[in-house]
Amino acid sequence: MSDRSPAPGALELVQALVNTVDLESGADALDTAEGRARFGLAEADLAGARDLRESLRAVLLAHAGHPPHRAVTPLGELLAAAPLVVAVDTADGSAALTAASGASLASRVAAAVAQGLVDGAWMRLKACEAADCHWAYYDRSPAGRGRWCSMQVCGARAKMRRYRAK
Questions:
Q1: For 104-113, how does the pLDDT look when each residue is reduced to its tens digit (9 = 90+)?
Q2: Which of 14, 63, 80, 112 shows its CA 20 to 30 Å from the CA of 120?
Q3: What DSSP letter does each residue of 147-160 carry, written as one string?
Q4: How far apart are the C-alpha atoms of 163 and 166, rounded to whole Å?
Q5: Is residue 118 within 8 Å of residue 9, measured between CB atoms?
Q6: If residue 87 lies in a helix (H) or strand (E), which one and from where to where?
C-alpha cells in the first residue's frame, strides 16, 4: 500500500515480511508458493513465519507510538534461538552479525535487526497507524514522526474521518 521507498539495507527483508499480508483485503502472499519462495519458506514453516511477521508488526507499531494490534509472542522470544555468527572482513577487519549458513528466516531477521540497530535505522521502521492497514514503512521524515504508510491513502482517510467527525 505504501508509496514510500523501501527500508535501507537488510531492513528491507523485515519490511517485506511484514507487508506480505494486506489487512484490508486479507490477501496473504505467504499462501502462494511464489510468496513463500521469496523468503525461502517451506509449507511447514508457515506458522512460525506468520508468528514472526505479527510480532514484527507489533514492534513496528510501537516504534510509531501505537499499541500492538493484537496479542503476539514477544519478538525477543522468537529471535532468541536464531543462530547468528560474527563475520569479520579480512580486508578491512570490519565485523557484523550475520545469519548462520543455511539460516532460518528468524536468523535473517535477527541479523537485519542487529544491523538496523548498529546503523540507527531500526527505530525508523514503523507500521502505519491506520487499523485497516498497519503496513510497514521506513520513516524518512526529518523529525522521524511519520504516522502513515502513505499520506495520499491512509493519511487522507484519517484526516477525512477527523473532518467528518467535527
A1: 999 999 999 9
A2: 80
A3: --S-IIIIIHHHHH
A4: 5
A5: no
A6: strand 84-88
H or E stretch at 97: strand 95-99
* Rounded-to-10 torsion of CA 25, 55, 20, 18: 110
Phi, psi of 162 (to 5 degrees): -65, -40
Sign of the Cα pseudo-torsion (143, 149, 150, 153, in order) = negative
> And the C-alpha cell for 26?
486479507
Per-residue pLDDT, averaged over 16-30, amounts to 94
Per the structure block, which three cell numbers stand in for 77?
A: 522470544
Residue located via cell numbers 527500508:
7
Is pTM beyond 0.90 here? no
3-state helix, strand, coil in the chain (%, to 5): 45, 10, 45
Give 28's DSSP letter: B
Size (the chain), residues: 166
**pLDDT value, residue 159:** 66
